[in-house]
Backbone:
């Protein structure tokens, strides 16, 4: 049977060309990011594919929840359209989801310990999807973890 395929796309995408076997699409503007859906209808069946559109949105801030003063805390971020995050810490360490100074994975949040530096540490993070990476978002976070001063807090 030689059936024709009826293609459709969600808003934000435009069909440039199509045949029974292929479709070529593009974003309707450079500000369209995230995910979109392509649908193929043939012989009464619908096949859907969700795709990443554009690089994720740039990271513009970090959210901080202090757990134990200046010794532990959680930092979270958000990048619309990101399927993966890359984290790096200088002057401290990530304690979860890994134990070290860097992490690459699906978690948009890390637990950290600035204990390696009494006066501050630097966090770097960027988002990624199949279309590419966001720029690095970098922030120096001052602390007052000096035991001689009785500890302190970790502000963001």
Residues:
């Amino acid at each position: 049977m030689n059936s024709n395929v009826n293609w459709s796309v969600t808003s934000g995408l435009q069909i440039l060309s199509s045949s029974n076997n292929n479709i070529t699409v593009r974003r309707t503007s450079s500000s369209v990011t995230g995910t979109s859906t392509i649908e193929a209808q043939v012989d009464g069946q619908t096949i859907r594919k969700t795709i990443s559109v554009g690089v994720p949105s740039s990271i513009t801030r970090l959210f901080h929840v202090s757990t134990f003063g200046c010794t532990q805390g959680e930092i979270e971020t958000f990048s619309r359209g990101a399927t993966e995050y890359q984290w790096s810490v200088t002057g401290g360490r990530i304690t979860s989801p890994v134990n070290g100074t860097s992490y690459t994975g699906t978690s948009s949040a890390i637990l950290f310990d600035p204990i390696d530096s009494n006066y501050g540490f630097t966090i770097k993070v960027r988002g990624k999807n199949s279309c590419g990476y966001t720029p690095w978002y970098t922030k120096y976070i001052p602390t007052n973890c000096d035991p001689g001063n009785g500890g302190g807090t970790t502000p963001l």
Summary: The mean pLDDT is 83. The chain is about 0% helix and 50% strand. The two ends are 63 Å apart (CA to CA).
